[in-house]
Write a structure and sequence with these properties.
Layout: H1 2-23, H2 34-43, H3 45-56, H4 78-124
Helix pairs in contact: 1-2, 1-3, 2-3
Pfam family, one: PLDc_N
Subcellular location: Cell membrane
Main location: membrane
Length: about 120
């Protein structure tokens, strides 16, 4: 029974060390390069894993939280909110321009109507 526990413990240390080397950023390894550490851990299972944990593992082993590739909800997405604000401004500006255009056309019709009335009044005189 003790042999089985020892074999399982050795296998766990080996697998954990190998996975840890694989998941570590290549720029964060100490001592030798990441591919060299992989070879050491693969060819010297127990000794390689022990060396990795003692000499090769980065000092700061806490993983830095990575931002999500996309926010979970639209109201959490700053780009969505920014685009929403831009769309709102563009729509308000379009409505303002439409109102100004309508006012300008109304003034032009009024002026044309007055000029026609003036032209028709001159002809009769």
């Amino acid at each position: 029974m003790l042999r089985v526990v020892a074999v399982v413990a050795v296998l766990l240390v080996y697998v954990y060390g190998l996975v840890d080397v694989i998941r570590t950023d290549r720029r964060a390894t100490r001592g030798i390069s990441k591919p060299a550490w992989l070879l050491v851990v693969i060819f010297l299972p127990i000794l390689g894993a022990a060396l990795w944990f003692i000499l090769g593992r980065p000092y700061n082993i806490r993983p830095t939280p990575q931002p999500a590739s996309h926010p979970t909800a639209p109201d959490d997405d700053p780009d969505f909110l920014r685009n929403l604000e831009v769309r709102r401004r563009n729509q308000a500006e379009a409505e303002r321009l439409k109102k100004l255009k309508a006012e300008l056309e109304a003034k032009e019709r009024k002026l044309k109507g007055e000029s026609k009335a003036d032209d028709s009044g001159d002809v009769n005189s």
